[in-house]
Amino acid sequence: MAGYILKRLLLMIPTLFGVMLVTFVVTQFVPGGPVEKLVAEMEGFEGAGEVSVGQGSMYRGDSGLDSERVEALKKLYGFDKPPVVRFFIMMKNYLIFDFGESYYYRQGVVDLVISRMPVSMSLGLWSFLLVYSVCIPLGIAKAVRDGSRFDMLSSTFILIGYAIPGFVLGVLLIVLFGGGSFWNIFPLRGITSDNWGEMGIVMKVLDYLWHMVLPITASGVGSLAVMTMLTKNSFLEEIRKQYVVTARAKGLAEKEVLYKHVFKNAIIPIITGFPGYFIASFFTGSLLIETIFSLDGMGLLGYQSVMNRDYPVVLGLLYFFTLIGLIARLLSDLSYVLVDPRISFDQAEG
Questions:
Q1: 242 CB-side CA count, 13 A
Q2: Given 26, 108, 262, 271, which residue has the most CB atoms within 10 angstroms?
Q3: How far, rounded to the nearest angstrom, does the alpha carbon of residue 321 sit from its chain's CA centroid?
Q4: Higher pLDDT among residues 75 and 347, named by residue
């Protein structure tokens, strides 16, 4: 086991390096880099008088920027060095989690990510709890009652929910319950009210949950459908196996057969995806959901950074999420051994 873990950790290094290299190369060919964007914005202040662009110098909006000022801006952002040098400097800093400073927001990338993380963590955590707390019992119930009216009706609603994109469902929920055309029940902006700091503990919790109802519903329905059908099919496959027929022939009660024999085998595909989904839910965001409900999360941050050519944020987020994804994949593989003792990576290596 230790050898397998070490090998996977070592394989993360070239994988992470390759992902960052490809992305860095792509950014070099994207037209309109951060320097060009800043120059265009500064030259757009026609007739705006003098605008400060650095210490000891002023910019006149109707005269444009000279080459010396452009070179100074390139040096400020580090673009005076060759791309190869910039890439290796970046990777060296990333090894110690030094992601630099945002060009657009003018603050450290780490601080910027931390400030946006509570929104994405709120969406991810509650969506995760909603999906796993509903899909497992519902999937088991559908497998036990396969072909019944309950199974048919629940499958219909599940497939309808799966077919509706999250952002479309979000708009529908706003129209119905957010003061659109029907009822004004739930708020539409942020994860807390403006006077949240003045509330008591109980009211803070209720206010927070009140704000999260619509975005969690919109973001969790699609995953709920997928996980429910996965749970049903996994249990249905085990129920049809010979050992279940033998257990029933011995006179065991149906609940004992289901939860003592079937459950521990059928739950393996669901549990093994638990670590990856749990970690991904915490650190990723949904651009459309965050935009619809005016939430400043990781998804919206990534999109705005790409549009503003804010490369420190773009590359820093990519490095962080790639690393998290690789770790989540390793934890998912290791969970196979924890859930099913019959699996051994040591035997596979031998």
A1: 0
A2: 262
A3: 8
A4: 75
